[in-house]
Amino acid sequence: MRLTEGDLPGLYLVESPVHADARGSFARAWCRDTFRAAGLDFDPVQANLSTNTARHTLRGLHYQDPPYAEAKLVRCVAGRIWDVAVDLRPGPGYGRWQAVELSAGRANALFLPEGLAHGFLTLTPGAVVLYHMGAPHVPGQARGIRWDDPDLAVAWPAPPEVMSEADRTWPGLAERT
């Protein structure tokens, strides 16, 4: 397992070698020792599974503010997604974003530290996303930013065809409370 820091501080692309033979394949999904060696004290307390029927389903951009902020390890376990992280931490990186394609075939993942919003667009029908969370979801603490906020100008690979009403109506970055 290899962790490579992304363009946003604390954001890591996680690559796991895939070992394949006649039975199928095997790849490590998470390793506490590897994360700690990279200086990341991430101990998941919850795992979430998101199933997405249609191609171009959008989920996000979601986050929880402190004291409920969540670090997360996001992995696509079926299909492919365009995964996006947006920096909401005070400082010069505020509002910057980075995106990466995650796919089941590559067994890659994205680690997001606390303070980043997260969202994705499915690139295939039947995409399934597994999240390992560093803090539990707290009902009533969910927050979001509009996926198409011009202040962010995220380069989505296609317009969404399916999304929730909440994701359609989140405020922009400038209106964030």
UniProtKB/TrEMBL annotation:
<dbReference type="InterPro" id="IPR014710">
    <property type="entry name" value="RmlC-like_jellyroll"/>
</dbReference>
<dbReference type="InterPro" id="IPR011051">
    <property type="entry name" value="RmlC_Cupin_sf"/>
</dbReference>
<dbReference type="Pfam" id="PF00908">
    <property type="entry name" value="dTDP_sugar_isom"/>
</dbReference>
<comment type="function">
    <text>Catalyzes the epimerization of the C3' and C5'positions of dTDP-6-deoxy-D-xylo-4-hexulose, forming dTDP-6-deoxy-L-lyxo-4-hexulose.</text>
</comment>
<dbReference type="InterPro" id="IPR000888">
    <property type="entry name" value="RmlC-like"/>
</dbReference>
<protein>
    <recommendedName>
        <fullName>dTDP-4-dehydrorhamnose 3,5-epimerase</fullName>
        <ecNumber>5.1.3.13</ecNumber>
    </recommendedName>
</protein>
